[in-house]
Specification:
The structure holds two protein chains of two kinds. By secondary structure, chain A is an all-alpha fold. Chain A is built from nine helices and no strands. By secondary structure, chain B is an alpha/beta fold. Classes of the chains: A mainly alpha, B alpha/beta. At the A-B interface, helix 5 of A face helix 2, strand 6 and helix 3 of B.
Chain lengths: ~260, ~270
C-alpha cells in the first residue's frame, strides 16, 4: 500500500521533471537560431497583433475597474485618519508593484495563453506541425518562436497600460466622485513613487511573468495529446499552471525586491 | 545513379516494448510507384515517418540517395527533407492560409523567388490537381477530396524526388478516389517522381503500383508486381488480398477461452 503510493509519487515526479526537460528543449530549439529578420519579422508582427492587441480590451476594462475599486476602498480607510491626500500613492503603488503585473499576467493567461495552447494543440492534432517538419520547415522556429517573443514583448506593455488606466480610474472615483483634491492626488503620487524601486521593479516582474506564462502556454500546446480531450486538458492546465506559477513567482520576486 | 532511391535495410523499430518492425528490408525503385499494403494498425504510417526522419529506428539503415537518414544531423536532415514530401491522411493544410498560400508556403520558405514567379508555379501546381479555381478558398471550405488534392499540389510545389502518400484513398467517395488514383500515376510519370503509397485499399493500389510490399506481423510477408502477388502462395497474403474476415489473421482479438470466461459467471 505505502509502496504503491511511493511508486505513484515517484512516477508523477519523474513525469513532471521530464515535462520540464521537454519544455526547456522546446524553448531552446525555438530560440537558438540565426536570426532571419526577413522571414521572422512579419510573423512576429502578426502574433503581436493576435496576442497583444487583441488582449487590449480586457486589459483596459479590468484596469479601469480595479483602479476605481482601489480608490473607493482606499478612500474609506484613509478618510478615517484624515489622510485622503495619500489616495494617489496608494492607488499608484498597489498597481505598479503588484496588481498591474499580477492581474495582467492572470488575464493574459486566460485570454492569450489558453488561445495559444489550443491553437498549437490543434495544429499538432491536424498534423500541421508534422507536415511543416516534412516540408523541411522547423515548427519550433516557424510557430513557437514568434509566439514566444510576441508574448514576452506584449505582456509588459499590457501591464503598463493596465497600471496607467487603473490610476486614471482611481482619479475618476477619488477626485471626480469622492472629492479628493486633484493636485494633491497627482503631487503626492509624484512625491512617493520612485522610478527605480517601484516602476522598474514592476516592469521586471511583468517581464518575468510574461516569460513564464507564454512558455507554459506554448509548451502545453506543443506537448498536448493530439485528441480533443487532450487539447481541452492542456488548455485547462495552461491557465491553472501559469496562474499558480505567477502567484508563486510574485511572492519570491516581492520578497527579493521589497523584502529587505 | 543507382536504380534504387530508398533502401531500407534490416529495420527494427519498437514502441515501448511493442515491436513494430523486426529486421525488415525493402527497396523503392527510382521513378516507380511502390505500394506498401497491410492490415491497419501495423505501423504503415510509422514507416513513412521513419523514412522522413521524424522517428528513429532501433536498428537498421534507411538510405535515401545513399544517405542514412537516421544518422544525419539536423541540418542535413532538413536538407534531405527538401527533396521529399509527404501527403498526410488529413491533408494537414495550414488552416490559417488560403489554398494559394498553402501551396506557395514551401516555395516561399525555401527559395527567394519573386512573387510573380511564385504565382506562376502555384497556378501550375494547382492546375495539375484541377484546383486552379479554388485558389482563394480557405482549407475549411474544401471537401475532403479537394483538401487532399490541394495538399498534393503543395507536396509537389518544389518538385521533390520522393513523394509519400499516407492512406491517400481512405474516406474518399468513388469519384475523388478515381481522381486521386489518376493523379498519383500521372504525376509520377510526368514529374519523374518516385512514389510510395501506403494503403489498404487493395484494388486501387494494385491498379497503379509497379511493385507491392505486403507487411504484416512486423515484416514483409509478400512482395512483387501486382500479378506476382495475386499468385502468391502465402495464405496470409491471399486473405488480405481477398478481404476474408477469418484466416491466418484471426477475426477475434487475442483473449482467454470464450467458454472459460462465460463459466466464470456461473461460479
Amino acid at each position: 500500500m505505502i509502496v504503491d503510493k511511493l511508486q505513484q509519487l515517484g512516477q508523477k515526479s519523474i513525469a513532471k521533471i521530464q515535462g520540464m526537460g521537454r519544455a526547456t528543449v522546446m524553448l531552446f530549439g525555438a530560440l537558438v537560431a540565426w536570426p532571419t529578420p526577413r522571414k521572422s519579422f512579419p510573423l512576429l508582427l502578426k502574433q503581436l497583433y493576435v496576442v497583444g492587441v487583441l488582449s487590449l480590451l480586457i486589459i483596459l476594462v479590468s484596469g479601469l475597474f480595479i483602479g476605481m475599486v482601489l480608490a473607493l476602498q482606499g478612500y474609506t480607510v484613509l478618510s478615517k485618519f484624515g489622510a485622503e491626500q495619500m489616495l494617489g500613492p496608494l492607488v499608484a503603488l498597489s498597481l505598479l508593484r503588484e496588481l498591474g503585473p499580477v492581474v495582467t499576467a492572470l488575464l493574459f493567461a486566460g485570454r492569450a495563453g489558453s488561445a495559444l495552447t489550443a491553437e498549437i494543440g490543434l495544429m499538432k492534432a491536424t498534423e500541421q506541425l508534422s507536415g511543416m517538419e516534412m516540408m523541411a520547415v522547423d515548427p519550433l522556429r516557424r510557430i513557437i518562436a514568434p509566439r514566444f517573443w510576441a508574448g514576452v514583448i506584449s505582456m509588459p506593455l499590457l501591464a503598463m497600460i493596465f497600471t496607467a488606466v487603473g490610476i486614471l480610474g482611481g482619479h475618476l472615483v477619488g477626485v471626480d466622485w469622492l472629492g479628493v483634491d486633484s493636485g494633491g492626488y497627482w503631487s503626492a503620487m509624484q512625491a512617493n513613487v520612485d522610478f527605480q524601486q517601484d516602476i522598474m521593479n514592476g516592469v521586471i516582474k511583468s517581464a518575468v511573468f510574461a516569460l513564464i506564462v507564454t512558455w507554459i502556454a506554448l509548451h502545453k500546446g506543443f506537448d498536448a495529446v493530439p485528441t480533443s480531450e487532450g487539447i481541452s486538458q492542456a488548455t485547462t492546465q495552461t491557465v491553472v499552471t501559469s496562474s499558480l506559477a505567477v502567484l508563486g513567482f510574485d511572492f519570491i520576486l516581492t520578497a527579493v525586491m521589497f523584502g529587505g | 545513379m543507382s536504380d534504387i532511391l530508398v533502401d531500407i535495410q534490416h529495420l527494427t523499430f519498437k514502441r515501448g516494448d511493442r515491436v513494430i518492425y523486426d529486421d525488415m528490408s525493402m527497396q523503392f525503385q527510382r521513378g516507380k510507384v511502390t505500394a506498401i499494403m497491410g492490415p491497419s494498425g501495423i505501423g504503415k504510417t510509422t514507416l513513412l515517418r521513419l523514412i522522413g526522419g521524424q522517428l528513429k529506428p532501433e536498428q537498421g539503415k534507411i538510405l535515401i540517395n545513399g544517405q542514412d537518414i537516421p544518422q544525419l544531423n539536423r541540418k542535413d536532415l532538413y536538407k534531405a527533407r527538401q527533396k521529399m514530401s509527404m501527403l498526410f491522411q488529413s491533408g494537414a493544410m495550414f488552416s490559417d492560409m488560403s489554398v494559394y498560400d498553402n501551396v506557395a508556403f514551401p516555395i516561399r520558405e525555401h527559395t527567394r523567388l519573386p512573387e510573380d514567379i511564385i504565382r506562376l508555379m502555384v497556378l501550375m501546381k494547382l492546375e495539375a490537381v484541377g484546383l486552379r479555381g479554388a485558389r482563394d478558398l480557405m482549407p475549411a471550405e474544401l471537401s475532403g477530396g479537394m483538401a487532399r488534392r490541394a495538399a498534393l499540389a503543395r507536396a509537389i510545389a518544389l518538385d521533390p524526388q520522393l513523394i509519400m502518400y499516407d492512406e491517400p484513398f481512405a474516406g474518399q467517395d468513388p469519384i475523388s478516389m478515381g481522381v486521386i488514383v489518376r493523379l498519383i500515376r500521372s504525376l509520377n510519370n510526368a514529374l519523374g517522381l518516385t512514389s510510395v503509397v501506403v494503403s489498404h485499399d487493395v484494388n486501387e493500389v494494385m491498379s497503379i503500383a509497379d511493385y507491392v510490399y505486403v507487411v504484416a506481423e512486423q515484416k514483409v510477408i509478400g512482395q512483387g508486381t501486382p500479378e506476382e502477388l495475386r499468385a502468391h502462395p502465402s495464405a496470409l497474403v491471399q486473405q488480405f488480398l481477398q478481404g476474408e474476415s477469418d484466416g491466418p489473421v484471426p477475426f477475434h482479438f487475442k483473449a482467454a477461452s470464450y467458454s472459460t470466461e462465460l463459466m466464470e459467471l456461473a461460479k
